[in-house]
Specification:
CATH superfamily of the largest domain: Butyryl-CoA Dehydrogenase, subunit A, domain 3
Largest sheet: 7 strands, mixed
Protein name: Acyl-CoA dehydrogenase family protein
Number of helices: 10
CATH class of the largest domain: Mainly Alpha
Order of helices and strands: HHHHHEEEEEEEHEEHHHH
Number of domains: 3
Distance between the termini: 41 Å
CATH architecture of the largest domain: Up-down Bundle
Keywords: FAD, Flavoprotein, Oxidoreductase
Family: Belongs to the acyl-CoA dehydrogenase family.
Structural class: alpha+beta
Organism: Nonomuraea monospora
InterPro entries: AcylCo_DH-like_C (IPR036250), AcylCo_DH/oxidase_C (IPR009075), AcylCoA_DH/ox_N (IPR013786), AcylCoA_DH/ox_N_sf (IPR037069), AcylCoA_DH/oxidase_NM_dom_sf (IPR009100)
Strand content: 15-25%
CATH topology of the largest domain: Butyryl-CoA Dehydrogenase, subunit A, domain 3
Helix content: 40-55%
């Protein structure tokens, strides 16, 4: 069995047995926080395949753990700058978030940061790209947003002239963004697959006119089309970490695939699919919020167009 498959099984078993475990416990028991951290800094030294396997499992259960922003984006940002101490903190279970250029209005004057990041993923440590540099800073205020998707907490970060720790220049920010998109795409593929599984299970179990609704041609075609979309999303997510183009392809395709899968899951379930008690609506909410996290599908396609036309 490949390492990615072993890791996938371990994460699935852990999440099933300890659904309320903290990020620190998860990091301690499975080593997930340091997955991409080099072994010399206390991590596992794994690569994109293992990252995608973990992200897919987290997306499958709508996990609130900060794997995307902390174990992927923050680790990549720190590694690119040679911030060894920070890498060791992250591998040990410290959570972090990364504010990318354009995610807020931040001004760096010397070693003082001022401004606001209106929508940031939650994390104990805050890394921000500002003034051509990557800095670590403690926000003056954190305000948690009330959002449609409570499984992906967002917060507003205010910086009122706070001192910063300079980590390096901002040259790596686009790679950090693209790796974040790749991890998100894997989460989306995992969520889409779970929506398909739920729809198939219901189609087998629900009877009308004396037979399972899955035997009706309309449902068969709907589920067959959805299977093709889900498998394609997984393929796109698997290649997303290769380069900027692959990340943009995955960002566009996996976002729309998840939205389709979440919507069709509700349709197959019928009336029960729109009730508060059924989990289908939670996947639709996550799919909808994910569609804005690194920009909508149209934004990813605009980047692809710019690349293809040589205008980017």
């Amino acid at each position: 069995m490949a390492l990615a498959d072993e890791l996938r099984a371990a994460v699935r078993d852990y999440l099933a047995g300890r659904p309320g475990a903290s990020w620190q416990a998860f990091a301690r028991d499975v080593g997930i926080a340091g997955l991409l951290v080099p072994a010399k800094h206390g991590g596992a030294g794994c690569g994109p395949a293992e990252m995608a396997a973990v992200a897919e499992e987290l997306g499958r259960v709508l996990s609130p753990h900060p794997f995307l922003q902390s174990a992927v984006m923050a680790v990549e940002a720190a590694a690119a700058c040679g911030a060894d101490e920070l890498l060791e903190e992250l591998a040990g279970g410290a959570s972090a978030t990364v504010v990318l250029p354009g995610d807020g209005e931040l001004r760096l004057d010397g070693d003082v940061l001022t401004g606001v990041a209106p929508y940031a993923l939650e994390g104990e440590l805050v890394l921000a790209y500002a003034g051509g540099a990557l800095v670590q800073a403690a926000p003056t205020r954190r305000t948690r947003h009330v959002t449609m998707d409570e499984s992906r907490p967002l917060q507003r970060l205010d910086f009122d002239g706070v001192p910063v720790r300079r980590l390096g220049d901002a040259a790596s920010w686009s790679r950090v963004r693209d790796l974040g998109i790749a991890a998100l795409a894997a989460e989306q593929a995992g969520g889409a697959r779970r929506c398909l599984e739920m729809a198939v299970e219901h189609a087998k179990r629900r009877h009308q006119f004396g037979r399972p609704i899955g035997s009706f041609q309309a449902i068969k075609h709907k589920l067959a089309d959805l299977l093709l979309v889900v498998e394609s999303a997984r393929s796109a997510a698997g290649a997303a970490s290769e380069d900027e183009v692959a990340a943009a392809v995955a960002g566009s395709y996996c976002t729309e695939a998840y939205l389709m899968a979440a919507g069709e899951n509700i349709q197959v379930h019928g009336g029960i699919g729109i009730t508060w008690e059924h989990p289908a609506h939670r996947y639709f909410k996550r799919a909808t919020s994910d569609a804005q996290l690194f920009g909508p599908p149209q934004g990813h396609r605009a980047r692809l167009a710019a690349h293809a036309l040589g205008t980017g």
